[in-house]
Amino acid sequence: MKSYGSAGAVARPLHGILLAFPIALFTIALFTDIAYLQTAEMQWSNFSAWLITGALVFGGVAGVFSIVDLVFALRRGGSRRVIVHVVALALAWVLGLVNAFKHSQDAWSSVGGFGLTLSILCTLLVLVAGWTAYSAGETAR
Question: Considering the entire predicted model, what is its pTM?
Answer without folding.
Answer: 0.83
